[in-house]
Amino acid sequence: MSNEAVKSKLSPTYHYKDLEKQAQKKLTHEVFTYIQSGSGNEETLRANEEAFKKYKLVPEFLHDVSKCDLSISVLGQTFQTPFLLAPVGHLGAAHPEGELAVARAAKGYQVPYVASTVSTYTLEEIADALGDTPRWFQLYWSKDSELTVSFVQRAEKAGYSAIVITIDTPALGFREANLTNQFFPVREGYGLANYFQDPIFRSRLNESPEENWDAAIDELVKITFHPKLTWNDLAFLRKHTNLPIILKGVLHPKDSIRAIEYMVDGVIVSNHGGRQLDGAVASLDALPKVVEAVNGKIPVLFDSGIRRGPDVVKVISLGADAVLIGRPYVYGLAHNGQDGVEELFNHLLTDIDTTLATAGKSSIRTCQLPGFVNIR
Ligand code: FNR
């Protein structure tokens, strides 16, 4: 879609906080809090957004910016947008059409989608809704290794072109708000589909999920996370897939160096949107050291705290190859289903396009030239 077409579809007002409020109006207190909150005292959640204020762009003018190219390349694939959709589980809680509505919106704009293990719809259903849209599968590496292999092989068969292993979740973060509300999406029935439809998972149960729902959920909760997982286990997955493997949740430069040593194909600098280790470094503050350590050997992607066009441009300027957005598209979904996600895309694309033009850049790929971004 051309940028002019995108602009012509802009709705009159948009601000991230407005969108958050619109979503809040549509959701129960428990569900909104589940999406919006972070872990613990939410220090990291706040730090993620604050960090963006430290970095300033230094424009250069009198270049032809009549057309701005927003496309990027990662792992040999060209994406039309510099952002991908971060894996967000349990989207059926935000809207009945959940991941399918997001996937349909993504298809129209060719926004790459990273499907979560704990999606409300199966990875195959999401793939169908995406059509030819680029897609990756996010893996919560299960304690049940045969189930892990089954997920990866199903993803490969359904046209996912990379496996994103989330490494920052050996246990679930201490999310006090959800504990207070006693809201656990899996118990509410969101995020079960990939498990309940999986032949390996089903073979582990004495009775099918249809016969004994509670027992199936208990089994799922028992095996979803794998606190004993180590670097050496990566070789196991390598044996079972030819797809590129990307690690999500890298913050320490040493982990990015280990990733290269263990033949990983890419890393995502992320603190899970402030939902895991509270007190963790803001993602943006972690990025420059990871970029330096990786030194161009593998792609570096980024998420946590991106709300607007200049945020995307700052991250790319600091050396990331691409970014992922999380809560903004979930709020779009909650606000107005597929249309709400499309509206979010319109705004974000227009904002990025305008940011580039007003910075004197005709392509997002030229943002990494020295001197464009400064720390205050
Ligand atoms: C997430 N995130 C996440 N990550 C992941 O690897 N698998 C998952 O299933 C989920 N689920 C999930 C649910 C909800 C409600 C949120 C808000 C986030 C983390 C997500 O991929 C991403 O790292 C953050 O959302 C990025 O931060 P922002 O952009 O939301 O601030």
UniProtKB/TrEMBL annotation:
Sequence ranges assigned to domain FMN hydroxy acid dehydrogenase in this UniProt record: 8-376
Reactions the enzyme catalyzes: (S)-lactate + O2 = pyruvate + H2O2; a (2S)-2-hydroxycarboxylate + O2 = a 2-oxocarboxylate + H2O2; 2-hydroxyoctanoate + O2 = 2-oxooctanoate + H2O2; mandelate + O2 = phenylglyoxylate + H2O2
Ribonucleoprotein recorded as keyword: no
Molecular function in Gene Ontology: (S)-2-hydroxy-acid oxidase activity; FMN binding; isomerase activity
Alphabetical UniProt keywords: Flavoprotein, FMN, Isomerase, Oxidoreductase
Binding site for glyoxylate: Y34, Y140, R175, H272, R275
Active site: H272 (proton acceptor)
Enzyme nomenclature, EC number: 1.1.3.15
Membrane-spanning parts: none
Cofactor(s) required, per the database record: FMN
Superkingdom of source: Bacteria
Residues holding FMN: 87-89, 116, 138, 166, 248, 270, 303-307, 326-327
Family: Belongs to the FMN-dependent alpha-hydroxy acid dehydrogenase family.
Name assigned to this protein: L-lactate oxidase
